[in-house]
Design a protein that fits this description.
This protein starts with 10 loop residues before the first strand and ends with a strand. It is of the alpha+beta class and 70 residues long. A hairpin with a 2-residue loop joins strand 4 and strand 5. The chain has 2 helices and 6 strands. Helices cover 23% and strands 39% of the residues. A 4-stranded antiparallel β-sheet has the order 1-3-4-5. A two-stranded antiparallel ribbon has the order 2-6. It has one domain: SH3 type barrels (Roll). GO terms for molecular function: transition metal ion binding. This is FeoA domain protein. Keywords: Iron.
């Protein structure tokens, strides 16, 4: 399942990043989004997601959220 289906405030483990776009993959990696890392959806605002990865909180759009498999 992808991150858009995650429940708020529940910690998940990233299983894979599913994208053919190397730039998108590199961006997610720079945020700390890679296989085995823990991620939590803090809030959802329309097509925007606030996620917590490691010690940071990031605002990502629905396309990024769909690329993150949990």
């Amino acid at each position: 399942m992808d991150l858009t289906k995650a429940q708020l405030e529940q910690e998940y483990t990233i299983k894979d990043i599913q994208t053919d776009d190397e730039e998108l993959n590199a961006f997610l990696f720079s945020l700390g989004c890679y296989s085995g890392e823990k991620i939590t959806v803090v809030s959802k605002f329309g097509k925007s997601y606030v996620v917590s990865v490691k010690d940071g909180r990031y605002n990502i759009d629905v396309n990024l959220a769909k690329a993150i498999l949990i």
